[in-house]
Specification:
- By secondary structure, this protein is α+β, with helices and mostly antiparallel strands.
- The protein is 54% helix and 16% strand.
- It is built from six helices and two strands; from the N terminus they run H-E-H-E-H-H-H-H.
- The chain has helices spanning 2-8, 23-40, 56-63, 67-70, 75-89, 99-108, and strands spanning 12-20, 44-52.
- It has a two-stranded parallel ribbon.
Amino acid sequence: MKLLSTQYHEKAFNLLVNQVHTEEDALDVYRKLTMVSNRYLDISIDYLGSIPEDRQMVESIRKQKVISELLPGSKISQAFDQLASRICNELPQSTPKGNIQFFWNKLLNIGDRG
């Protein structure tokens, strides 16, 4: 965030906290990061949510299967579903402004090619 803020003048960020035990742990990470960024950087951070720590993810990776297909009812699959829904339905779409955004835009739109 510091690099993107200082070198690329990016001021708005979204945070997803990964491998948390509880939602309170994720919110604690968000609060601490926000406090530090408010003190040292002129940026805003929006909280997207969290992905719980789950040993079944290791199994999914080992089997090279998407966790939501392997275990659709699991807590981690539900967290990914909620995140995808939030990203698709709530976040405003923006036009890429620089190299890193062009990279992510291109990467994320690979599936759009017929």
